[in-house]
Amino acid sequence: MTSAQPVIAVLGTGIIGAPVARNLAASGLTVRAWNRTRAKAEALAADGVQVADSPAEAVDGADVVLTVLNDGPRVLEAVRAAAPKLARGTVWVQISTVGEVVDELAAFADEAGLVFVDAPVQGSRQPAELGKLVVLAAAPESVRPTVQPLFDTIGSRTVWVGEDGTSGAASRLKLVLNTWVGALTHGVGEALSLADRLGVDPRHFVDVVSGGPMDSGFFQGKSAAILGQDWTPQFSVDNSEKDARLVLEAAERVGVRLDATEAGHRRFQRAARLGHGDKDMAAGWFASFDADA
User: Fold this and answer.
1) Which of 32, 85, 117, 152 is the most buried (most CB within 10 A)?
2) Regarding beta strands 30-34 and 91-94, do their DSSP bridges make them parallel or antiparallel, or are they unpaired?
């Protein structure tokens, strides 16, 4: 690194990227942020984040670059745009959910002489805002002292899953976790939609599950969102559809049939077509009905 206090560039300031940038700046680091829609980045200026007009401007002189964009192709596009100002040896921490595209990103990092850290995060808006994300990370031992303080700022814990970021081990673990997240989301959504149409008091369903072996914080959060019709996006239907698609693409490559995930992917697509793509993933509930309930 070029300085005792590293300069951090954050490319992407959406639901996860904005609180990541804000928390890093609050820890005393110099943080520059770029976002495709500049207004989202400008909202961070009050938190001490420097807003850049382009990826290249954001990374100029940065010690660490964090990419927090919607998918792999957008990540690659942003880093390619930043390439003229990326010094060889710069640490690139990739925390987006990119699926199999991680191999392309790792190849570009090698071509550009960047140190690639594969570090997708588990969590949604609230954990990101609280600095309680779980960081899934793969990187050489030599770079971990550089990135661990950053992970400690944005997350509650770091799970190191490999010593080579280019292996994609962390990104593939994220696909496995997203398979489970989708199953939980659709499970509670379908149960509550059936209760709605059967005339069953949904509070009785929640009451029976609460405190038992099927209970979880996720269940409580998503059931409360559905019952309260509160679709404030912690993680959107559109992003969930994308994540399910990435899971299915990986499964097809290795010859694994994921029937539940395939059905869940169709539910997210249906909810989006009904106009709920920008709502919280719990709005997959709407997919149970032919039209808005």
Assistant:
1) 117
2) unpaired
